[in-house]
Amino acid sequence: MKSQKTIWWRYGMRVVVCVLILIFCAKASCAQTKNPYTGDAKIAKIGEYQFRANCAFCHGLGARGGGRGPDLTRTPKKHGDSDAEIFGTINNGVAGTAMPPNGATQQGVGMTEEEIWQVVTYIRSVEKKSDASKMGNASHGKELFYGSASCGTCHMVNGKGGRLGPDLTGAASARSTEYLTESLRQPSKRLAQGISEAMKEFSQEYETANVTAADGTKYQGVVLNEDAFTVQILDTRESVHSWEKSSLKAFEKTRQSLMPAYDEKVLPEKDLQDLLAFLAANVAGGGK
222-236: per-residue pLDDT in tens? Predict the structure, then answer.
């Protein structure tokens, strides 16, 4: 029979082990919520190298956004603005989008916790808070969007507008001002990619499709889905059509955007700034 002293000793050891586990878990949790390198310029520089190696392919050099990933110099960010939230986005990815989990044991680039914090510190060092009021008149921009500029015919903001082009809710926080300006002035130079649609911010381009059906009817729109045998398009009246390719008289895809070019004669610089201010004032889940 075990002595009472032995029993108490073993009980005490178990308590010690439990306490150590709790301390370890608490430290791990803290490491996930507080950036140990806040404001450290040297770490930010190291983070820039990490960013260029692991993130720039999608988010562009300087974190200003690319065709595949959003501009990370802007605030507010779609998936959270705190250091912990940015860390979580990098480490865990964003379900339903092209952003993979990038932690050391994940499917992405496999960064350590330290490397992720370095990247977070770099992003903070290049961040610029958005101020729609300094860009232009957001109220006038809204009038242009749904009025004379006819943007709302094809584009949606916070659930209002058309579906032929990409949803622009949160576009100003996801894309740089230069990217949006180029998309307006020269829409065919770089076909727009989906911004907020799940899994489309990586792959879908809004290619123009010209289709002649078996009965001679002609359709024009954007490609929604396509494989070796079938194609599905959304036409300019926002009707969806599907065909087997073998049944078509003609099917052509072109990189000439359906969106007209808004040059300075069509959209003066002041009106352009007002439109951008309207987009900047409308982030996912909010806006005016």
Answer: 998 899 999 999 999
